[in-house]
Amino acid sequence: MSVNKQFVNGAWIEAVDQLEIPLIDPATEEVITQISFGNEKDAVLAIDAAEAAFKTWSKTTPYYRAEILKKAANYLRENLDTIAHDMVLESGKPLLEARGEWTVAANLFEWYAEEGKRAYGRVIPTNRIDKRSSVILQPMGVIGIITAWNFPAYNPARAWAAALAAGCTVVAKPSENTPLSAYHLMRALISAGLPPGVLNLLIADAAPVGEAMLNDKRLKKISFTGSTRVGKILMDGASRTNTKLSLELGGNAPVIIFDDVDVDEIAKVASIARFRNNGQVCVAPQRFYIHKNKYEQFAEAIAKYVSLLKVGSGFEEGVNVGPLITGRQRDSVFELLSKSKAENASLLTGGHRPEHLHKGYFIQPAVVANLDQTSTLARNEIFGPVLPVFSFEDMDDALAKANDTEYGLAAYAFTNNLKTAIKVSEGLEFGIVGINEWAPHGTELPFGGWKSSGNGHESGSEGLYEYIEKKLISIGGIW
Ligand code: NAD
After folding, report:
1. Has 248 been annotated as catalytic?
2. Assigned CATH class of 3-249+453-473
3. I need a labelling partner for 410 at 20 to 30 A (CA). Which of 161, 226, 445, 472 fits?
4. Residue 168 among the catalytic residues
């Protein structure tokens, strides 16, 4: 019998059909443990519990909810060693990255605890003396939260924290690839005194659970973090059932490097930024556009720095790049690389299985050149350890190439010229733009994509309002 169960209505229970799946360590390909695996039947039980709990949770004060979220944040900080260890085990990411991610998850709980207190309504003067109009804010109801594995704590934490702070109840379905981190988030909330049914955790078969969420009128919104492909499936379904959606989808971020910067210095930091979490990051800097005057110099420097990255188990001291999450993910990156070779791209370094690693889903980090806008590596979200370099002529050319994608999540530019910085940041068709920095996001900052990268925001006060309905109350006949 599995010890890793579903958490529904305040209790750890077996999945209705008692199914289990193995959880695989991506660094060794060995089974870590068996995981209880639910389906649409578990989803209905979870919605029942969340619907019942909404009646009381939505009537609590934001101050009450804040105390629970802050206690959960403290639990995460106090248990950092254990929870970071388990995240490395299931996701393969380096320990330092796992510790950093858990710290951000704790910060999200704490930040939304406080921001929930600041959801103010409005009193609006009208054109009639006998009338009073105001807008009040109310929690939306039961929310389905489906999240991706690449940030096993951060992805769920930012949506769970905002929804709970807003007074909503939740049916959460994190990725089956990284359930251990989700269990830890759940334990944090349980130890903080979260009442039964307020957040229900399912590790379950995604498609039937997604359908059950769409089809159940009691569930008011699905917050989804994952691929554009699945986002489109949910949009199709929602057009049928009229379910509201918040979508945080894929990316294909351009990095524009102008010729007034020290490209060697930028290449050095880029070799770390691009390969954070092995490139499995929605805002990962992906398409590197270098001014033609500095292209050769950058390509040489980045290949040198990338070849120095240490690949191995996330537990090993000094490792920069761990395994990819699954064999399937690794194979999809190899496939992109082989298509790109067939297109006559030049591999400057990496792109193969590391010689010293005989098990695990590893790829030696790659740099690829001799590409254009039609290349496979320009058109697809790579989600792996590959850094393609392109060149550009001038600002117009850079913007045209950077914007030439269906995605619109994050973009980056490097320049020391103020006018260039302003023009490029205003010309980029992306929801998040970093100028001279690689981390243009944070707990308090709105995070969301344009175009096919999503709909709505997470983080910041915008993230809270995704889970709040506005209601106009107009009182007439006063005199
Ligand atoms: P995915 O779309 O395959 O899966 C995401 C989640 O959806 C998982 O929990 C999965 O089980 C579930 N799912 C799969 N099929 C489903 C279906 N038919 N109905 C309902 N749920 C379903 O994505 P992934 O491979 O886990 O994650 C990688 C993708 O996520 C990348 O494209 C990445 O850019 C994106 N992502 C985006 C953000 C963001 O904030 N924009 C953050 C992290 C990841």
Report:
1. yes
2. alpha beta
3. 161
4. no
What is the pTM for the complete model shown? Answer: 0.98
Band of pLDDT at residue 331, cut at 50, 70 and 90:
very high
Q: What is the identity of the amino acid at 4?
A: N
- Ordered DSSP codes for 412-456: EEE-S-HHHHHHHHHH--SSEEEES-S----TTS-B--EETTEES
Å from CA of 118 to ligand 1 middle: 31
Would you say the CB of residue 407 lies under 6 angstroms from ligand 1?
Answer: no
Which of 90, 97, 282, 466 is the catalytic position?
A: 282
d(CA 213, CA 220): 9
- Residue of 432, 352, 358, 344 lying closest to 386 (CA atoms): 352
pLDDT at 2 over 60: no
CATH architecture assigned to 253-443: 3-Layer(aba) Sandwich (3.40)
Q: Cα(249) to centroid of ligand 1, in Å? A: 7
Write out the residue limits of the CATH 3.40.309.10 domain(s) in the chain: 253-443
Query: Is the pLDDT confidence value at 40 over 80?
Result: yes
Q: Whose CA is nearest to atom 9 of ligand 1?
A: 175
